[in-house]
Structures are given as C-alpha cells and as structure tokens.
Amino acid sequence: MNVDLRILRYDPERDKAPHWETYAVAADPMDRVLDLLIKVKAENDGSLSFRRSCGHGICGSDAMLINSRNRLACRIRVDQLGKKISVAPLPGLPVVKDLIVEMSGFFGKYRSVKPYLINDQPEPERERLQTQKDRARYDDTTKCILCAACTSACPSFWARPEYVGPAAIVQAHRFIFDSRDEGAAERLEILADENGVWRCRTIFNCVDACPRGINITRAILEVSSAIVGRRG
Amino acid sequence: MDYPFDAIVVGAGGAGLWAALELAREGVNTAVLTKLYPTRSHTGTAQGGVCAALGNLEEDHWEWHMFDTVKGGDYLVDQDAAEVLAREAIETVIELEHMGLPFNRTPDGKIDQRRFGGHTSNYGEAPVRRACFAADRTGHMILQTLYQQCIKHGVKFFDEFGVVDLLFEGGEPDAGGRAAGVVAQRLADGQLHTFRAKAVLLATGGFGRMFRITSNAHSLTGDGVALCYRHGIPLQDMEFFQFHPTGIVGIGILLSEAARGEGGTLLNDLGERFMERYAPKLMELAPRDMVSRAMYQEIRAGRGIGGKDYLYLDVRHLGRKVIEEKLPDITDFARIYQGVEPLTEPIPVQPTAHYAMGGIPTNVSAEVTRDEKSTVVPGLFAAGECACVSVHGANRLGTNSLVDLLVFGRRAGRQMARYAGGVERPRPIPDAVEAVRAELEAIRTRPSSGESAAAIRTDLQDVMMDKVGVYRDGKMLTAALARVRELEARHDRISITDCGSVFNTELIEARELGYLLDIAHATVSGALARTESRGAHSREDYPERDDKKWLKHTLAYRGTDGPTLRYKDVSITRFEPKPRTY
Ligand SMILES: Cc1cc2nc3c(=O)[nH]c(=O)nc-3n(C[C@H](O)[C@H](O)[C@H](O)COP(=O)(O)OP(=O)(O)OC[C@H]3O[C@@H](n4cnc5c(N)ncnc54)[C@H](O)[C@@H]3O)c2cc1C
Ligand code: SF4
Ligand code: FES
Fold this sequence. Notes:
CATH architecture of one domain in chain B: Up-down Bundle
Number of strands of chain B: 24
Number of strands of chain A: 7
Low-confidence stretches of chain A: none
Radius of gyration of chain A: 20 Å
Number of helices of chain B: 16
Structural class of chain B: alpha/beta
Low-confidence stretches of chain B: none
Strand order of the largest sheet of chain B: 7-3-2-11-19-18
Largest sheet of chain B: 6 strands, mixed
Mean pLDDT of chain B: 96
Strand order of the largest sheet of chain A: 2-1-5-3-4
CATH topology of one domain in chain B: Methane Monooxygenase Hydroxylase, Chain G, domain 1
Shape of chain A: elongated
Oligomer: heterodimer
Bound molecules: flavin-adenine dinucleotide, iron/sulfur cluster, FE2/S2 (inorganic) cluster
CATH superfamily of the largest domain in chain A: Alpha-helical ferredoxin
Radius of gyration of chain B: 23 Å
C-alpha cells in the first residue's frame, strides 16, 4: 500500500521555522513507522534525523507525536494508523533537529527524585529477602523506559514546564513502594513541592501515551496519598 | 575542547556502567562517554536472565556452571576466565540485589531462578535452575539499576558523545604505546573533543548489524572493536557469531530462550518436537548453535511450516498465568510485531543473528592484549560484548553475557583504578583530532553523486546473512570475501546529502558502516581459514571439530590487503576437551 507520510522537518542551520514535508512511501501494513522513517532517510532525504536504537520498544529512543498521539515509532504499525500518517517531535520539549528533542531537562527531573535505592543498613551476606507480594507492589513502575511520552503529553507540563512530570513520579513510585527502600520520606518531600504531584489534574494523557502500559495515574495517586498519609 | 580525566569509559551498557561505578567508588576522576543516553543501551533489551549458581531452588555449584560454560563453548573457552566468571557470578548477582534490582522472588523471598539452555546439574545430567531473572526484562532492570547507582555515586556522563578515535602515547600499541584517551564527537553540534586519560575502557557492545536478520539494535555497529582493529590491535575469534533460534520471522526481534526455559517447545510442520532427534537429553534447552542448526536442517528437509523457512515456538500449554507473569514482554512482541496471539496460537520463529563471541582480546583483568603472548596494551581495557576474554569460546550459553558484563565490568573498573593510581596523566596530544576530522570531512564534502551508505549497508547485511550465517562452506566464504572487498571499495566513495553539523545522523551512519565493513572482513577471513566445525562456526565442507589443528584462538590483524591471521593457545585448566553431546 502507499502511505502519505507527513513529517515536521526542522534544520536549525537552514530553516527559520519547522515546516511539513510529505513523502509518498510504499509500505506493508505490518511495517512500523520507524521502518518508514528509515526508508525515507535511505531513499528520499538522508538528512532526516531521528533517534532510534533497539527497534522494538525497549530503549525509549523514538517517542514522537504520531497522528496526534505520543507513540514509539518502532511500536506502532501502519495498519493501526491508515494511509495518512503525520509525524512530529514530542510536544512541549525544545526541538533540536527534525524529530530530535532536547532531553536534558527531562533527565534532570528524573534525577531530582533520587531514583536509586536508599538503604543504609549493613548489607546481609546473601540477598535481602522480599515476599512475592512486596515485590508485586511496585512491579508496574519498574517497567518505565524513560521515553518521555507521558511527560510531554501532559497539559499540566505544557502549562508549567517546571512540573516534575509523570515520568519522574513513576520513577519515584518504584522506590517509595519497594519494601527494601528507606528513602520514601525524602522523596515524598520533594514531590510535595509546588512543582510536584499536586500539578496532576488526572487528565490521563500519560496513561494513553505510555508504551509500557503503566498505570501512571494510579501511581501518581498512590504517591499523593502517601504524602497525605504522612501529614495526616 | 580538551578534557583531562583519569579514566574514561566508552559505553554505558551493563559493562561500562559497572566499571564506572567501581571507579566512582574508588574516587577516580572518571567520564563516561556514550553515543546513546545510557538507558538506551542494548543491555536493556536482554530478557531471560543472568546466571549464577545460587542454588536457591535446587542444588547447584559454580563448578557445574564453569563446566557448562566450557562445554557450551565447544572447548574454545579459556578456562581460567570461565572459572572467574562462574565464581564471581554469585557475588555480583547478590550485589545487584543489594543495589535494588527487583528480581522475581521464590515463595520464601529469595531470588527466583529458571532453566536456560545448556545449564545443567552435575556436569550435564539435566537442566538446572540457574538463571536469576526479573520477569523477561532482566537486562532492563540491570541497566536501570546500574544507572541509578551511577547517579547516586555522582558519575559524570557525556551523553550523545560518539567516540570516533583512540589516542595513544609513545607510539601505536604494537610499538609499545599506552592508551592516552579518545576523540569524541558531540552529536548535538558535531564538534570534536579530546578526552585525555590514563585508563580507557571500551564497552561499546556488539555488532549484529552486519547481518540482515538480527536481534541487535541499530546502534550496534562495533565501534570500539573496529577502532582497536584500526590501531593494530588484533580481533579474536571473529568467526564465531551466535544465531539465536527464536527470532521473529523476517525482522529478527528476539523471543527469549526464557520461553523454552519455562517449558515452551519447538515444532515443525508435522507438529513434531524435532529436537528429540538432535539433543534427546536437553531437547529445546540444548545450546543455541545446536538448536539453530537443527532448525535449518528441518527447514531444508521441507519440514518448515508450510514448507517455508520458519518453525513454531509453542507456549500455549504453559497457561495464561505463566505466560503473563513470566513472559509478558515477549508475548507482547509476538502480538505487536507478528500479529500472533501466543495464548492460543504457536509463534512463527527463525534463527536471528544475536551475539558476537569474538572481539577485542583481553586477559581476566579486562586489560587489552595484542598478540599470542597476551602482551598487555598499557592503559587500554575492554569489557562486555565487545571484548573476548574468552568465556564464551565458540558458542555462548544463554544468560552468560549478562554475567560477563557484571563480572568483567567490575574487574575492569577495579583494575583501571589500580592502574590509574600508578601512572602520570598523558600530556595533551597536538593535532589529536586532525586525522579523524579529515576522514569525516572527506565524506561530508564529497560531491553527492557518490555511493549511498544505505545501499552498501543492505548489500553487506545480505551477503553476511546468506553466506556467513548458520552454515558455511569454502565456496560461500570465498564469494563473501570478494563481495566485502567490493563493498569496502564502494565505501571509499560514499557521499551524503546532509552538510550540517547538528545531529548529522547521516554522517554518523556512514562512519558506522565503515566499522561494520572492517569487522565483516575479519569475520569472513577467520571463517574461511578455520577448516573445522566448532560451536557456532559450522563448515559443511569440514563438518568435524578438529582439536589437533584448531583448538586455538584466531587473531586477525588489519593489513592493507586484508587481515593477517595468527593464532593463540587456549587455556585449559580443569576440563579436557570431549565430544559435545547433549
Ligand atoms: C534481544 C537480546 C536479548 C538478550 N538477552 C540476554 C539474556 O537474557 N541474558 C544474557 O546474558 N544476555 C542476553 N543478551 C546479550 C546481552 O544483552 C548483551 O551481550 C549485553 O547486554 C551487551 O552489553 P554491553 O555492556 O557490552 O553493551 P551495550 O549494552 O550494547 O552498550 C553499548 C554501549 O556503548 C555505547 N557506544 C557504542 N559505540 C559507541 C561510540 N562510538 N561512542 C560512544 N559510545 C558508544 C552505546 O551508547 C552503549 O551505551 C541479549 C541480547 C539481545 C540483543
Ligand atoms: S512512564 Fe511510560 S511513557 Fe512515561 S517515560 Fe516511563 S515508559 Fe515512557
Ligand atoms: S527504537 Fe528503542 S524504543 Fe523504539
């Protein structure tokens, strides 16, 4: 089948502003959008730039706005999108070139929630024990691949770029609810800040965007309740 | 810019991150350079598990793990290294748990373990539960956990900096020079920078992208391996490249061996569990080289599904609970990329190019060595998939790569810290970036009528897949060699359309293709010379293993007219080579 692939192009060394280009691409219905981008780069315009690595939804490189929703280009198929496909960089983040956005702010927020196990007890000789139930408690949020699809789909983040954003809260959740961790108080304090969890308006865009199927809104609510519980 | 450091780690996968963590703990001034954001590294895609003889569910011993590794590698494994691997696997996995890795748990709260191909109890008796896992995203959790610890310890990262050259002081390595740093290109603006350091670690991962059907990321182009080769360091055992039995048909995305570890079966067109005929004891859990060959034979005999070039992986009988709790990601891959429902349908699979057993030669301290006497290149280290220490010999066992990253990444960090404590920092090297700048400019400024990188890459991937795959013979390899030379000549005439400096991904891809060509050349030459069949290297014209002539490692040196081959002894400490049956 033939697909009309519209791409929002921008080269900071040549263009004053982003502009749309359309490419007619021969595609198989099972092709992913990433396959089409690679094809355009090989056959139409070698300067088309985008990030990609694993090619199967695990590395988080290629989140972008595809037919108006944040998706990983390597995980969404042509037959799910139809014959007209539009691709633009993730919203709400500065565009560097074509589909590449500036990610340092996003990773800075990730770092701000202390995304590492905090436990100062002496380590036992063997593994620490954890029940299957305790392990299941934070399973969902361990799946996050830091693709930024959620944060950049969030109207609260667009309105206030200082908002720490869903991805960072997901990462904090992963530790706050890990029975081995002792840093919950520090993290909850950070997230109780004016740019923390209270910015969430439960719009659910993040849940729709997450390629890992994480129930982000639930994670945010659990973190909010933990903050309230502590104050209670 | 010139950045002075004491240690540089190139690559932020499992191997690089653990090394960086050790260096940070030792207080060594370290920079990690990575062409991808660390969490994008391919370690994150590893699914099935990481092996360690913890014995949490049944009796197990590191000696058994060592034996399985040696036998799995068809006796080309250096046994001193395999011993280090099997012993230290246990403490590194425990340490990962202490760092917070969310392993699945047994009913009594210990790290859960599952079966994996080639891992047995009591020297080959029966499959043993040795693979520690976090669902089927073990690699993701290892990558995340190590990155988290690096953040905690304040490791300095240069994200999206691609290393394009290595620097030496006092001559090139073959003249006794020592590592002095690297040249890196900042992708965001295309500028070249020098990073000077006493100790340099290469942890750049694999190079499966030289094949058409592969489980490897687009970014796995063997950069560190090719850069060593270009500086006169030999590449070891390149002819051994693993094809994993269960890739998604046509595109190669991996469906982990964990599916078989949990009880999944392989079926041919007649619905037979054909592995019965090839490995009666271990069946589907025989080592990967054997299973991939068995699949090819079934396909050749016309027993592929519908007579085509694939077979079935069947997990239906495992039930929804096991499939959804222990194999969620691969179930999802089958649904998304193949449109198949594993709960109710068998999954079409075919072998996919997966893992490089060969690479940069190192000793057990992760120091790079440069000849048959294992002479060390001072200050240069390698670990992870780009290195060949050699714990995998002619064929790697499943879950042994992640262990390799942990054990030898950790050793690399420690040894680098010791080394850096005893030497002076190299002096600035005038014009350090000029050689590579000229190479990049030549590509950028060549008139756009030249060759296209994308076309050459496709041709390379085709020839490697069709002629240097699971089965090989002298005729195919000779043809492949001629073809690779032709492609190299075309690569010299490559041109691009993007003249910019910001994220010039076209330029980067052209350079990466050059690395793949170098590596392919060494691979084909080694394969053509090795007139025997061992592990993943299967010559139809020489079907037997020949220990008298070939129980030795290949060292390929880059020459102006193709590689020169030399050979190095295998270290044999505990287990004498025996015929390999399962
Ligand atoms: C799909 C899949 C599943 C697997 N499952 C398992 C499993 O279950 N168990 C197991 O043991 N093994 C498994 N493996 C193998 C194992 O995952 C890999 O061998 C291992 O992760 C490689 O890690 P690494 O640290 O060497 O490199 P990688 O994780 O590949 O990292 C390479 C790093 O080098 C950087 N880099 C590369 N070139 C440059 C450059 N020029 N400049 C700067 N930086 C550079 C990259 O940015 C990246 O950070 C699997 C492999 C695949 C493909
Ligand atoms: S929570 Fe989901 S969408 Fe957000 S960064 Fe993580 S994986 Fe991406
Ligand atoms: S390329 Fe890795 S997530 Fe798409």
